[in-house]
Every structure is written in C-alpha cells, then in structure tokens.
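Let's practice the habit of predicting before peeking. Look at the sequence and jot down your guess about where helices and strands might fall. Then scroll down.
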Amino acid sequence: MNQVPGIKLNNGTLMPQLGFGVWQVPDDEAEQAVTTALETGYRSIDTAAIYGNEEGTGRAIARAGVPREELFVTTKLWNGPDRAWGRDEVLRAFDDSLSRLGLDQVDLYLIHWPRPMRDDVLATWKTFEEIAASGRAKAVGVSNFRPEDLERIRTVSDLVPAVNQIELHPLFPQTALRALHADLGIATEAWSPLGQGKELLTLPAVASIAAKHGRSAAQVVLRWHLQHGNVVIPKSVTPARIRENLDVFGFELDADDVAALDALGAGTTGRRLGPDPAVFDM
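Done guessing? Here is the structure:
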C-alpha cells in the first residue's frame, strides 16, 4: 500500500519523500484530514506548534491503528518574539508538543524560523542537540534557514541539521540553497510545493505537461519535486485531492518536462509567496 520512497537523512533516519502537511488546517478539521491521509497511505505527517492542530493530528494518529514505527511525525518549535528562548523554554515547548500529539517521541523536530535579528537561535540549536541526544526526536533540523543562517550553526555545533524545510516550487526553485544542502548533507523539504495553488498550477507549461501525461497540474509539479530529490508535504482537506497528491508514482517526467518546469524560475530571484526569513519576526 505504501509506495512512497524514503530519503536517508544524515543520521541514518529514513524519511518518506512525500508526506502530508496540515498548515492552516483548523484543529477540529485536522483529525479527519490526517485520518483520511493515513487511510490513503501517507505515513509522514507534518505539523507545528503554531499551526494549533497538534492535538487533532495526535488524535488521528492514535485512532488510525498504524504501527508507530511505520509513521514519521514532524513538528516545529515556534521560537516567536514573545520570550527569550533559553534551554528551559525550548525543552518546555518540546514537551508541550509531545503532550499535544500524545507521543513520547517525534521523528523530526525543527526550528521554525531563523530570526536573524535576534541572538538566541544558536542557544536554541544547542538545546536541539540535547533533544537529539535524548532520543526523543530521532532527528532535528531547521526551517526557512538561509545559507548564512546555516553557517551560524556551523560555527557553534558539529551537529548538521538533518532537514531544512523551505518554501520551494518551480517559480521559487531555491537552486543555490538546494546545492548547499547537497554539499552539507542536509535534506531539502519543500513547503508550499504547489505554490499555494496560485499562478503556478494554471501556467500553460504546466498544463501542457499535465495533458501529455494524463495527470493533473498538481501531480506534475509534485513529480518535479520528487525527481529533483526534494521531500514534499502537500496539504489538502479534500479527500479526492489527498488521494491525488499521493498518486504520483505511476509516471515520470522526461528530461524535456523537467527542463520546461526548471525554466519557469530560471534566471530570476524567484517569486516568494511566504514571509522572507531575513526579516520575519512575528
């Protein structure tokens, strides 16, 4: 049933290359959406403290009956500006996430934003080292980190983030950052892999490739990610789309298809849809 290939992270942990995201899904809807995803065959679920749906996600996991060892659960530290993020605060936030999820371990724990205008991210990462060493997170990583943010971590730690989860889609391909990840042994994970369903999915180039393969525009874009080696976490609350997003392993883009999609973001700085990590501090 589960045909999703795995990506081996830099600590040997195996992460499904395609998972299910619950960003902007209310907690009372998350339980049903995650239940549908697990019934469909997804085994990787991505949530975050700030999403406000860890409890609903946890309820779905508990009632699904899927062996825990078959699941890959990611959540994130919301290192917001409301407090200083010292060791005790980070550990308390991690414990709170585990409690809301109803789990004693997550597979991946991420720092949600680099917040370069503040000076606590390095101390936060040192606490993440402690969490990783405890085994309560199989792997730890970051989200929305730029090259300079990754370099800051390298100055104080030998622990390389297992994952950097970033905004990434054909209109914002982050080519240089993906190349740096490859050099450092960091897995690239794409949030908003479909460009939030906006302009990207209606472009003629995407529509043409979809028609060629008898697939949807979303399936074509997800194949582009997979063939570039990205981990992807599309989200939906619509059962048909949840199933469609997983049904991307029965076809393959050819070199011309990939080149056409690559060209959508070539030669530009890209079209960012989400916040800019250089200035985001909400």
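How did you do? The mean pLDDT is 95.
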